[in-house]
Amino acid sequence: MTAADPDDRPDAALLAALTPIVGGRGVLVPGADDDRLASYATDWRGAYAGRPALVVLPRTTAEVAEVVRACAAAGVAVVPQGGGTGLCGGAVPDASGRQVVLSTERLRGVREVDVANQTVTVEAGVVLADVQRVAREHGLQFPLSMGSEGRCTVGGNVATNAGGTAVLRYGGMRALTLGLEVVLPDGRVWEGLRGLRKDNTGYDLTQLFLGSEGTLGVVTAAVLALHPATPRRATAWVALADLAAATALLGTVRAVAGERVTSFEVMSAQSLAIVLAHVPGTRDPFATAHPWYGLVELADGGDADVEGLLEQVLQEAVEHDQVVDAVVASGPRAAAVWALREGISEAQNGEGPSLKHDVSVAISALPAFVAHADVALAEVLPGVRVVSYGHVGDGNLHHNLTKPVGWTDEAFLAHADRLTATVYASVAAFGGSISAEHGLGTAKRDAAAAQKSPVELDLQRALKRAVDPAGLMNPGKVLAAE
Ligand code: FAD
Ligand code: MLT
Ligand code: ZN
Asked: What CATH architecture is 110-228?
């Protein structure tokens, strides 16, 4: 690659091959397009950065297929990218300057809404909030919900098997995806857009691509399952003495309200403090601080009095000492309560780098896991701030860490590996997972491999080799490149 002989550059040859496929406006080139290119070289949070050879913006599945075929012919790796909100570095190219970023941002079509079948077929670049809106416009709902929904895409949701705040009732992306269209690493298109709830015809290829993080192909479209709308909602914000009270409350809420329980989230006092400090317009619903807080949401489509039901649940919880204080909210007050929960991720960035630990253990083991991890963390770095919160109804905590007050980012990051290893050792001690919903990307790839048996790793590598023998589809993500 020399400036004196530009035609010898692999990216120049590739540029010549790709431009006729996607048009001049569909390729961004380093140098000429640096301003626009920068955002594709990093994730949304700015935690990971790389150097793309080119950024390609195809408009159709056929264009994606031609782009992937051209890259395969040139021996160039492809990095699929949606909204860039992934938290593990999966959508970011490496630093070599030789990987092509394939952005789905121009694949934004809604292909079909089948109201009777309760499905929607959308292209990969459609933003999650837009799927939710389309479903609402047809009197239905798409229940996947998370703080990044205004930017993350269906392709990214499929590729990461995204979770969020309604998994307790509806399941995550695995449960909500019925069919896929995927461009394979050699450029062939697998047309699997079946809106079937039952299909027992051999290996389940749709599920193979769920959570594959762009390493097996580019998802170009998906058939998603919709659900009946649940316009009646009631939300409670509760004060909890400890995490054991949260798991006990979860049992009470589920016993009384059954499938109407849509969300059961918790956040520690430290998490709330960070939100109140960094998110404008937020305020503490209670006059005094408490060790933990919970957010419970019930929803119903009929004429059930969900607010009354929630009050009944909370009454019972107070009688059993599961709750110290509670407010029930609906409408704008419920939105204010949700802002306290959804604001944590961004608020934590305001305190410097956040060491993200997206872990899960059995719900019954959550209190002991947190106690175990926090003692060990305080030994590794006294004063480290544990910003623990998440989807307790799924046994999933974001046991994130922020630097001690007064520390520089650099001094804190020097302890990052040891702190993360400490959290993961506690996860292992309780038989948990180090990635409940965010995936592995590059961030957790090696730690996950270290916890898997040789048999499991062999099977995973065999799958990768079978679908991507040249190893050019998002190499180095999920599994180390071979
Ligand atoms: P990207 O970040 O662009 O990509 C993520 C991965 O998917 C990469 O490996 C990429 O290569 C691959 N990919 C993207 N598009 C395709 C495609 N079309 N075909 C093949 N591979 C593809 N996640 C949760 O699960 N639950 C949460 O509650 C949650 N909350 C969040 C809150 C905030 C504030 C933020 C910033 C993130 C949150 N996330 C959460 C993480 C993130 O939003 C999800 O992982 C989301 O699914 C990523 O979608 P994306 O379009 O941004 O994907
Ligand atoms: C969330 O639930 O808010 C995110 O998944 C967690 C995070 O940003 O760490
Ligand atoms: Zn989460």
From this structure: 2-Layer Sandwich (3.30)
